[in-house]
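Morning. Coffee machine broken again, so started the prediction first thing and wrote up yesterday's gels while waiting. Chain of 137 residues, entered below exactly as on the submission form.
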Amino acid sequence: MTYQLWATEHGIHREGAPAKISRDPKTGVVVREEFYLYDNEHNEAGPSLIVRDADSGIVILEEWKQHGQFTRSGGKAALIERDPVSGVVTLEEFWLDGILLSEIPAAIPQQAPGPVDTERKGASAKPPTSRGPSWSP
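Came back before lunch.
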């Protein structure tokens, strides 16, 4: 692994760019980017931590933090984990100002594109009883 680190007398710090970068020497993939502001994980413009699989390059972890606390507004996940092969989301956690609001631990199913059958066939046909995971702030 090759590493780059930016620090000042105040600790790990770099404004507007990652303060820690780790690269896999074999594949050349940047496997880890960490954003810090005065020694706290912090990025107002995106995730404060991005981890990629060295072989596939798929982002397998995103953490959204400001001033060292998980937070992301707008009903979006502040912690996202993905499968390194498929890229399918396997975990989402919803945080606001360091408080865990909700967690969705199962993979979010991906629906194949195609026509939707809106016609009920037969008298015994029933509408679906579950709409999958839901979240409300």
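Confidence is low (pLDDT under 50) at residues 110-137. Going to sketch it on the whiteboard this afternoon.
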